[in-house]
């Protein structure tokens, strides 16, 4: 929706520039949109406010019939649950002037180094810190392929 609005406002701007602007302005747009809509989902409002600054850490975590362990905890066991993969979708451009991005999916593998649980008022999402990458958010609806 934001990208469509930007395209209409800047018809001469190429798609790569529009996506860059979208990324740059998304957080402010999200806050303005969520707080301006009376019927916005409560969870979205809580996400906008942010989590409690105290973060719980775990050596293991069970969710949706999956068990996750940190590498240090996995080293103590014969059952290995510290390796994860994530499929990431993104738009790729062959050049700055190219106006038709190609949607590509890349799979990233990693080993869980830390498990964090963030405390929002009414829900507690957890995040995995995977070696060699930024923290990867994992939600209840995310499908993880465990190799």
Radius of gyration equals 19 Å
Helix content: 25-40%
Helix and strand content put the structural class at alpha+beta
**Broad shape:** flat
Oligomer: single chain
Order of helices and strands: HHHEEEHEEEE
Poorly predicted regions? 138-147
Instruction: Quickly count the helices.
Output: 4
In total, the number of strands is 7
Task: Present the secondary structure layout.
Blueprint: H1 2-9, H2 15-36, H3 42-49, E1 55-58, E2 60-63, E3 66-69, H4 71-74, E4 83-92, E5 102-118, E6 126-130, E7 136-138
Antiparallel strand pairs: 1-5, 2-3, 4-5, 5-6, 6-7
Helix pairs in contact: 1-2
What does this molecule look like?
The protein has helices spanning 2-9, 15-36, 42-49, 71-74, and strands at residues 55-58, 60-63, 66-69, 83-92, 102-118, 126-130, 136-138. It is an alpha+beta fold and 147 residues long. The chain has two domains: 1-49, no CATH class; 51-147, no CATH class. The two termini are 36 Å apart. Mean pLDDT is 75; it is low at 138-147.
Quick recap of the structure?
The chain is an alpha+beta fold. It has four helices and seven strands. Mean pLDDT is 75; it is low at 138-147.
């Amino acid at each position: 929706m934001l990208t469509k609005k930007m395209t209409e406002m800047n018809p001469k701007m190429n798609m790569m520039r529009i996506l860059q602007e979208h990324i740059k302005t998304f957080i402010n747009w999200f806050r303005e949109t969520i707080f301006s809509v009376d019927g916005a989902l409560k969870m979205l409002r809580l996400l906008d406010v942010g989590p409690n600054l105290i973060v719980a850490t775990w050596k293991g975590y069970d969710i949706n019939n999956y068990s996750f362990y940190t590498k240090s905890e996995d080293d103590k066991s014969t059952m290995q649950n510290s390796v994860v993969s994530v499929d990431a979708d993104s738009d790729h451009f062959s050049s700055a002037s190219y106006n038709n991005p190609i949607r590509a999916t890349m799979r990233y593998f990693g080993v869980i180094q830390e498990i964090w649980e963030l405390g929002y008022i009414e829900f507690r999402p957890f995040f995995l810190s995977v070696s060699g990458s930024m923290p990867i958010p994992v939600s209840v609806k995310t499908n993880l392929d465990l190799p």
